[in-house]
């Protein structure tokens, strides 16, 4: 299976590259930007094109969101012309006002924000005009590298003594970029083998949590990892933000359909954070050794 991945520096693109490198059944072609033409698709002949998400569209400028949506529209045109499947990942922020219960896949986002509505228009067009698509709605992604990685930025702030500000009244399901990459490749392998299960799917981590609690847990685990290595670091604090004073806003994605159809299980974000902190500590140790400031093993 050959996949064309757009937006090379995105944390999800890097996760897809790592996952593909561990497999013998998946070949990746990675493009720097979001532009792809019919002639490129004809030359590359991928089984699918994957577009990573705008991780935080609510905090982006209208011009940035419109540029992304316009680029996706052009990708749809190119994919249609060559009969190539399209996978578009989108942020759970499209469910701007949240729901009291987990959000099923059939619930199409209906945000008030004009920028988010522009993204929904593109999704509506894909569903109406091109059958061979996967629209994959994701919880907030976290990773150790790449744009929109979140976790790496949080760790850097903590170890340099800076405060991390996080909303206490917004509840969601943090999602490992590595787990999304593994799921997407598995889903597309099944599609290539004839599953023909196109449509919208939700992928997120287990255990709904506020951004404040997630950041606090990362800080606690980071402190434990550093102390276990004999390091004493004055970590920055977590500061709570409150945007919804009347009640907590819940964006919890129901991921039952991706389990029922593709057998994809949600991964516990606590375990994924722990695994990534292990990797971060090993990289930190190696960098110190390479710089001649650490102790040789």
UniProtKB/TrEMBL annotation:
Superkingdom to which the source organism belongs: Bacteria
Catalyzed reaction equations: dTDP-beta-L-rhamnose + NADP(+) = dTDP-4-dehydro-beta-L-rhamnose + NADPH + H(+)
EC number: 1.1.1.133
Pathway(s) the chain acts in: Carbohydrate biosynthesis; dTDP-L-rhamnose biosynthesis
Key word Oxidoreductase present: yes
Bound cofactor: record note: Binds 1 Mg(2+) ion per monomer.
Necessary cofactors: Mg(2+)
Ranges of residues in domain RmlD-like substrate binding: 64-279
UniProt keyword list: NADP, Oxidoreductase
UniProt cross-references to InterPro entries, sorted A to Z: dTDP_dehydrorham_reduct (IPR005913), NAD(P)-bd_dom_sf (IPR036291), RmlD-like-bd (IPR029903)
Family statement drawn from the similarity comment of this UniProt entry: Belongs to the dTDP-4-dehydrorhamnose reductase family.
Entry function: Catalyzes the reduction of dTDP-6-deoxy-L-lyxo-4-hexulose to yield dTDP-L-rhamnose.
Protein name in the entry: dTDP-4-dehydrorhamnose reductase
Organism: Vreelandella lutescens
Source lineage: Bacteria, Pseudomonadati, Pseudomonadota, Gammaproteobacteria, Oceanospirillales
């Amino acid at each position: 299976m050959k996949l064309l991945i757009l937006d090379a520096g995105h944390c999800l693109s890097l996760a897809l590259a790592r996952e593909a490198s561990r497999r013998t059944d998946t070949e990746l072609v990675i493009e720097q930007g979001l532009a792809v033409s019919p002639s490129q698709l004809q030359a590359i002949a991928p089984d699918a094109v994957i577009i990573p998400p705008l991780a935080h569209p609510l905090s982006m400028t209208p011009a940035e969101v419109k540029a992304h949506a316009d680029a996706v529209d052009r990708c749809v045109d190119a994919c249609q012309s060559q009969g190539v499947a399209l996978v578009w990942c989108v942020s759970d922020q499209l469910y701007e006002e949240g729901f009291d219960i987990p959000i099923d896949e059939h619930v199409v986002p209906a945000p008030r924000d004009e920028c988010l509505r522009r993204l929904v228009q593109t999704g509506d067009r894909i569903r109406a005009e091109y059958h061979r698509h996967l629209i994959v709605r994701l919880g907030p992604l976290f990773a150790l590298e790449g744009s929109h990685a979140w976790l790496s930025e949080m760790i850097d702030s903590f170890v340099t003594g800076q405060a991390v500000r996080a909303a206490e009244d917004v509840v969601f399901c943090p999602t490992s970029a590595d787990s999304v990459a593994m799921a997407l490749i598995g889903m597309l392998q099944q599609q290539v083998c004839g599953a023909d299960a196109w449509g919208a799917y939700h992928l997120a981590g287990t255990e709904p949590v506020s951004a404040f609690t997630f950041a606090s847990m990362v800080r606690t685990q980071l402190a434990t990892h550093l102390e276990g290595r004999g390091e004493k670091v004055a970590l920055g604090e977590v500061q709570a933000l409150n945007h919804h004073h009347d009640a907590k806003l819940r964006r919890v994605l129901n991921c039952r359909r991706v389990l029922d159809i593709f057998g994809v299980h949600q991964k516990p974000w606590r375990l994924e954070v722990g695994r990534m902190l292990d990797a971060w500590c090993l990289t930190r140790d190696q960098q110190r050794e390479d710089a001649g400031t650490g102790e040789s093993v």
